[in-house]
């Protein structure tokens, strides 16, 4: 039996009879193929990527595993529809904090319709896409003080300016996220963003690939960050970076994806700044 | 006595009684302060940059030396006007090949007027700015077969698509540039683009700085490339990279210049591709 994903933070949500992704209890994520060309384009990307021998193995790990397209009962009750069957990235996490960050200083690209261009550029200017080269699309933080999840409203998230985005990235790794008056303590920054298995390390691996890869242009694609808040036998955070949302991927045609690459490097600088200031904070006893 | 620069390839040209830059015979370049805010903004940038202790010394060499603002007789006969006094980058070259490449996937930036935005985005889409993250703004190549300069028309240059830009970058380092039927031989690629003092080496130094610098955002700024074609006692090409045109520079405010950085890396990939294919060509005896 398929059900609505509990930890989805951006995109169409399958609730109140709407069409959206579903999950099973085997760690698979069922994403309905959108009616227009987007669904088909995303399926085409996964087919191409999966069979592309020029993609290094260590880079594949940053993409959800693809299990083909399958007809399943849609979440909106409209009967069977084709769904992409993907790895459910947050499956296996008990109390995951999750953030979706859309990378790039534009979400439109050459040869889109004027209508789509106008829609995108308006949103790109209203959010931090143009100014920072990325925007936070959604987040969900496990709060340790109340032992529950905190999830800001989508409108609040999309209204972030530079300081809002920086604050969200600090809160994401703090133990006092829910306290609006407190400075986020970045208590988990070194475990989640830092370290040999941390977010920064993973982003830098992706960066090295994007520096020269000319296979695909990842328009309007997101970096999804996840980590675990359940403290079990070990204190492993299982910090994980995955690229998601490939409905607007185009062939690279011998040109690097300078739009994604520039935005990714800007995002990396934000993570590095948080790591540095939290290091200094600890050293100075703040 | 000031005169019209012989080797300027882009921007306003001081001829036919128009306002434009002038040079003296002491290696200085006099750029009239544009009437609107742009001239003032460029002077402000040079003042800030010159006194900014956070700019590493080895990076300063990639910018023209600044000698202040001075009243000189304008080229359009309108009397004395304030001019930026800069290093004349091509002074001392006898037969320089010169190319101006505007870096970035957009030339507009947040908070510009709607009129300026519309003007920029139209040109950014019509040129390779959006698709490649840079556009060739002008070039002048010394042709060895006719022993004279070849300079394509500005309208031709701005109409380049991906292949046109690639071709121009190949012709720039070829001995048979004027021959439209021949494949550019890239005879000087290894001396000009490659080597320990070559263009690529210099671009990579700039890249390393742009990866983390958050001091300035270099909107609508160009990379100028110059090298010597006069064969003297040594065969030194004196290949040189300089950043020019700072009328639209803004404070970085703690964010990297992801727009310039992404475009610069795309440009670097083009140079690397030419170097690799010309290496292979030599090895295979083509």
Automatic annotation (TrEMBL), chains A, B:
Name recorded for this polypeptide: Inositol polyphosphate multikinase
Source species: Eruca vesicaria subsp. sativa (Garden rocket)
Catalysed reactions listed for this entry: 1D-myo-inositol 1,4,5-trisphosphate + 2 ATP = 1D-myo-inositol 1,3,4,5,6-pentakisphosphate + 2 ADP + 2 H(+); 1D-myo-inositol 1,3,4,6-tetrakisphosphate + ATP = 1D-myo-inositol 1,3,4,5,6-pentakisphosphate + ADP + H(+)
UniProtKB keywords: ATP-binding, Kinase, Nucleotide-binding, Transferase
Chain's role: Inositol phosphate kinase with a broad substrate specificity.
Taxonomic path: Eukaryota, Viridiplantae, Streptophyta, Embryophyta, Tracheophyta
InterPro entries: IPK, IPK_sf
Matches recorded under Pfam families: IPK
Family from the record: Belongs to the inositol phosphokinase (IPK) family.
Enzyme Commission code(s) on record: 2.7.1.140, 2.7.1.151
GO molecular function: ATP binding; kinase activity
